[in-house]
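Feature request, filed as a ticket because there's no other form

It would be nice if the structure record came with a short human-readable summary line next to the tokens. Right now we just get the raw output. Example of a typical job, pasted below so the devs can see what we mean:
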Amino acid sequence: MKNLRIGVVGTGGMGRHHVRILSALPGVEMVGIHDQRPETAQAMADQHGVTLFSSVEELADRCQAVVLAVPTVDHATLGCQLLAAGQHLLIEKPLAASLEEADRLLAAAGDRVLAVGHVEFHNPAVQALVQLGMPPGYIEVQRLAPFTPRSLDVDVVLDLMIHDLQILHALDPSAVVEVRATGINVLSPRTDIANVRVELASGCTANLTASRISADKVRKLRVFLQNRYYSLDYPLQEVKGYQLVRGSDGPRIEPADLAVEKCEPLVRELEAFVAACRGEGPVKVSGEEARRALATALTVVETIEHRGS
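Raw output as currently delivered:
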């Protein structure tokens, strides 16, 4: 089978990692890159031995698939353009800036692959937890990061928390019943720290905190199930577990850690995208699934704005 010809539009914070991985990924011909900042992109092109194209159209003409890693406000315009040109597409999260834009992308996709870069879902620790298939009763998430000037075109909900909202829906696909949220802006014009309580139709409740103004980087998810508890550490790719065991000598708590084969999540994300483009399997986060995470995230944003008005 011939290599999949692929390009990357946008070589910033995430785009440069896509270029790095795709340049060495088996079964891929890394055609080239495009960025509105040619001086930065040229250094990236030289480093990885790929061609720098002067326009999105010129790059797309040479590709079968494109990774779109540009600011969220440009996702719908460029994404629909690439899909209309016949490209399979992987868009960095969030899918779009609004549900209307998300629906435009879904409609434009047709029979092309439309994947969304919720990279944390490809973390092998997350996959180990999802594959249990056990309905959670309560979920608690902390996603805290030091301040950086990256992704200030969106607030912390669409920048960071949306990762965990997508994972929440994967763990429990039941409908959202209620959202309570509060948040404030501290170092940017948009919300920098948010706390959210989401109630689902199944009865599961999730409490999520996201901050991009913290002194330390913390990314943990805790899931409470019937007679079980799991604590997931995203950076360490570990899932520590405990379960209640009832024996003849009475109940006791025993370890129930999940086996995790560690890897770089972005590699797994791109492998799944390439396989889907070849017709070898579905992507792990489809446009429809990303739209659902976006819908919940936008509800959170609206709840915070309403509370502050």
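Something like this underneath would help us a lot:
Residues 287-308 form the longest helix (22 residues).
The mean pLDDT is 93.
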